[in-house]
Amino acid sequence: MKVTHMLKIKTNFFWDSLNVIRASILGANDGIISVSGIVLGAAGANLDSKTLLISGLSGMLAGACSMAGGEWISVSTQRDIQEKTMERQRQLGNEDCENCPIKLQKNDILMPFHAAASSFCSFIIGAMIPLLTMILARPEHRVVFTLIAMIASLSINAVVCTHNSEVSTSKTILRNVITGLLTTLVTFILGASV
Questions:
Q1: DSSP 32-90
Q2: Which pLDDT tens digit goes with each residue over 75-101?
Q3: Whole-prediction pTM value?
Q4: How does DSSP classify residue 115?
Q5: Which is deepest, 22, 85, 95, 124, by most CB within 10 Å?
Q6: What are the boundaries of each domain within the chain?
């Protein structure tokens, strides 16, 4: 009885669960890349450990809030569209709605807070990887260790997001790593030129 009830809950909120997973993957990727770029740019400028920490923490909090806010706004708009679609379906009635391209149920409605919270938390988790690496590494190894940590964590995130799918893991890893390397190259050069 309990297993049946749990399965019913999972299937009832399938679309919201997918949306939360999507927001989590994007949040983690963005946290890894954004904070890597911030701390490597600061390291390129030869800033001291305290400044690196404050820059990284500020970037982490601003990025997490921005991601969560963006998810909340985006998913709220999607939810509004879903609710309007359901309202139109109710007005048409069951017989007239048989030809509707999308038949939404109450269980299909997305929850903006779920996406925002998962994006916020995953951004923080992703951002902690380059931030802690940069702060804990010896000054002469900071840049190299942070790059290694970024590449490893982006690769792991790519493996996780392509698990049990038909999507190419190697292509996803390559896209993630190239994006991270280009971002950090730009910020490091900017920091070094100051």
A1: HHHHHHHHHHHHHTT--HHHHHHHHHHHHHHHHHHHHHHHHHHHHHHHHHHHHHHHHHH
A2: 999 999 988 888 888 887 766 666 676
A3: 0.86
A4: H
A5: 124
A6: 51-120, 137-185
